[in-house]
From TrEMBL:
Protein name: Histidinol-phosphatase
Species per Swiss-Prot/TrEMBL record: Hyphodiscus hymeniophilus
NCBIfam families the record matches: hisJ_fam
Pfam families: PHP
Recorded catalytic activity of this chain's protein: L-histidinol phosphate + H2O = L-histidinol + phosphate
Family designation: Belongs to the PHP hydrolase family. HisK subfamily.
Gene Ontology biological process: L-histidine biosynthetic process
Length: 301
């Protein structure tokens, strides 16, 4: 059964993504997806966390509420065609975001959230090169120091939130001087990576194999090979996300993902499943395994 645990729409992430949410769901169905996670970016609540194109953060919270309502409608409308999970992508800009993330996660319609890091020293690290360099300067002026700070921030997020899904674990590679560099070459960075992987395994979380790295020009998905090998050695479980930002990205590079996973010896992937919609009580969300062969067979790429 083909699936993706990570997606965005232009309807609820305008300027960041494209297309209406329903069109994205229909595209996922047409590609043979049997489970699809809707995970728009969570609203930020501090004005200093605006991206350059944003004049105000005021629209973000009501937009998120509208997203959840629309996601519930779509889940019911297409229930006979696809299993829709409703979530959001978390923003760990600083520890004070813990309370906002957990508050949002308490909504009975939310199945899960993705634990992600997009900022280091409160500066975006995947928006553009200029901001990446600003974050690197704040970390001490080298990619290695920024990587160390990124994984330290990630560790804090993991300890505080215990997310069921960890998104693009090594996103920090994207705008670095050598994004395809083996993280093992940086001793302090690698020590932090292994520490974080151990914690994710202890918490029973899933790391997302995120194919967006491939459409952005990297040689491998997130996480890179040495990270995946270490994680699998520790007993870690991989899930799958296209991190689509519109209909053109749904299932993008899944074929290359199969090859990558097979080269790692992976025969089984994991995803979340919910026991359905509840209004008063929290839903039970479980981890389910599916063979890579079944995922490949059902996908219509």
């Amino acid at each position: 059964m083909a699936f993706s645990m990570h997606s965005h729409s232009g309807q609820f992430c305008p300027g960041h993504a494209k297309d209406e949410l329903e069109d994205i769901v229909q595209t996922a169905i047409s590609k043979g997806m049997q489970t699809f996670g809707l995970t728009e970016h969570m609203p930020r609540d501090n004005d200093k966390d605006r991206y350059p194109e944003e004049e105000s953060l005021a629209p973000l919270k009501p937009r998120h509420g509208n997203f959840v309502k629309e996601a519930v409608r779509l889940r019911m409308k297409y229930a006979d065609k696809i299993n829709i999970l409703i979530g959001f992508e978390g923003e760990w800009i600083r520890p004070s975001y813990k309370h906002l993330i957990l508050e949002m996660a308490s909504n009975p319609n939310i199945d899960y959230f993705i634990g992600s890091i997009h900022h280091v020293h409160e500066i975006p690290i995947d928006y553009d090169t200029a901001l990446y360099v600003k974050a690197r300067d704040a970390a001490g002026g080298t990619d290695e120091r920024l990587f160390e700070d990124y994984f330290d921030s990630q560790y804090g997020m993991l300890k505080a939130l215990e997310p069921k899904v960890v998104g693009h674990l090594d996103l920090i590679r994207l705008l670095s001087d050598d994004p395809n560099r083996d993280l093992k070459e940086m001793k302090g960075v690698w020590e932090r990576v292994v520490r974080n992987l151990r914690l994710i395994v202890e918490q029973g979380g899933l790391i997302e194999l995120n194919t967006s790295a491939l459409r952005k020009g990297l040689n491998e998905p997130y996480p890179t090979r040495s990270v995946c090998e270490e994680y699998l050695k520790l007993g870690g479980k991989l899930t799958l996300g296209d991190d689509s930002h519109g209909i053109a990205h749904v299932g993008t590079n899944f074929g290359r993902a199969w090859e990558y996973l097979e080269s790692l010896g992976v025969k089984e992937l994991f995803l979340l499943e919910s026991d359905g919609i509840k209004v008063q009580d929290k839903k039970t969300v479980r981890i389910r395994s599916v063979t890579l062969a079944d995922v490949k067979a059902s996908f219509k790429g």
